[in-house]
Amino acid sequence: MKNINAKLIGIGFKNMPAAALDGAEIPPLYDHIGRTITSFALRGLIHTAYANLTRGNETTLFPGVAGRHLDLYSFTAINNSGNSNLVSFRMGTGGGIVHRILVPSYGSKSFIFNPPIPQDEMAAAITAQIADWGEISDSPITISAIALEDNL
Q: For residues 40 and 45, what is the distance between their CA atoms, to the nearest angstrom?
């Protein structure tokens, strides 16, 4: 058996690299301290949000990032009222609804989008709102969410 000395050569990144051309070689990817990147996103490109939604108000979860897309990856909604509430998620303030979920009374709902919901407009906010329908409580719905930054 031959001893083969293989040298692993990679490039470190703090941000997502540009897309590769078809047929181009792709070197291993490392973070700024030399760890191999195997997950879906670099830590610096993960955004978290926490907000209380109140009746009738559209609330910004993630403000827009100049020159970047923020893709909605996951959320958890917690309802502390005796009424079920419908929560709508939008890309851009007043934009089209991209997802709705009914949060049961005194309950919670979590959802992971695989793949994430892509943002169609750079630098737009991701917002959430309690729908005005049926029996609505003045108790807020608590939302925690994760978005992934994409610079492509």
A: 10
Q: What angle do CA 66, 62, 122 make, to 5 degrees?
A: 35
Q: Report residue 73 as tokens.
A: 């990856």
Among 125, 130, 139, CA closest to 81: 139
Task: Judge contact between 69 and 47, C-beta under 8 A.
Answer: no
CB 149 within 8 Å of CB 67: no
Average pLDDT, integer, range 90-116? 92
Which superfamily is assigned to 41-150 in CATH? Answer: Nucleoplasmin core domain (2.60.120.340)
The partner residues of 111 in beta bridges, in order of sequence, read 75
Q: Is this prediction's pTM over 0.90? A: no
Q: Which of 148, 79, 71, 69 is nearest to 110 (CA)?
A: 79
Task: Delimit the domains of the chain by residue range.
Answer: 41-150
Between CA 25 and CA 126 the distance in angstroms is: 35
